[in-house]
Amino acid sequence: MKAAEILALKETALAEARAAGTSAQLEQVRIKYLGRKGCLPKIMEGLKEAPPAERPAMGRYANELKQELSELLETRRDALASATAATSGAAEVFDPTLPGRWRALGARHPISRVIEDAIRIFDTLGFSVADGPDIETEYHNFDALNTPEDHPARDTQDTFWLESGQLLRTQTSPVQIRVMESRPPPVRVIAAGRCYRRDTTDATHSANFHQIEGLYVNTRVSLADLKGDLTWFAQRLMGPEVKVRFRPHFFPFTEPSVEYDFSCHLCRGKGCRMCKQSGWIEISGAGMVNPKVFAKVGYDPEAVTGYAFGLGVERLAMIRYGLDDIRLLYDNDKRFLEQLAQ
Ligand code: DAH
Hints:
The protein is an alpha+beta fold. Helices cover 40% and strands 18% of the residues. It has helices at 3-19, 23-34, 39-47, 55-87, 110-123, 138-141, 174-182, 223-238, 291-297, 313-321, 334-340; strands at 128-129, 135-136, 167-168, 187-196, 208-218, 244-251, 254-263, 280-289, 305-312.
């Protein structure tokens, strides 16, 4: 056999391998060319008798034939195998002794858990759930809450403004206005959701956070109701030994206003790193609804009174789960979230 003939044989062999449509046909091609009684051993045998000048070229072509054909056979075999696996799933062997496939299960996020638990607790006090948009009007977020444009309280709540003049709400308090605009008293609602402020992110601040708002309006609501209900909530959420402390404060939409703290549940009020040695952890603001707000929504300030409060959800989650950095709640690190999953 001449060198040129070996070259031609290689082309034929490759073409046959390409044309083979089943693994059995591929196997036949392999046997025909590479098998013990196939073409290649014969060529190798013939090398010995070939004229010395021809030998190197013959040897090289014979090697190429072996190499290229083996590679092609292998790729074709893989391709055919995956094509059959894809089309004939039924042929797959079912082995009942193998362990089942494990799927990672999700869990409720700590922020969702605090919100759902709060809603459940306030439900026992007769509160129903209300909702409002994240994109608010300036009127609902500020003016109707007795915070006119020149009021200094606006400075601490700078936010993201849209070209339309609307804004991303800085607090859930505008839901109070929307609820009172839409129905007559009495109202007893709780509203949870996202809030936005132009804050630089650090261990305790985030430009995007969550609040829970509560509003109770009726004929004879007093500050005692507020204290009692918030204390009930604190004890149901954090444990029966938690105490609640109220401090005088200012909010434009409540009069009088308070800020309130929970006793630190880590050190039980003794003072630790979590509560900055004070024994108390600040939760948010509250107060008696300002009569000016009632007038804005068309309620008779002489006929009704009400209390309102805000809760910082991240703050509650941080003390409940002993976190020292708010960013842990947003990183979406599964290793962290799995530790908190119930
Ligand atoms: N919206 C206030 C804030 O974000 C919290 C707050 C204070 C809510 C007093 C209230 C309230 O409903 O009565 O700082």
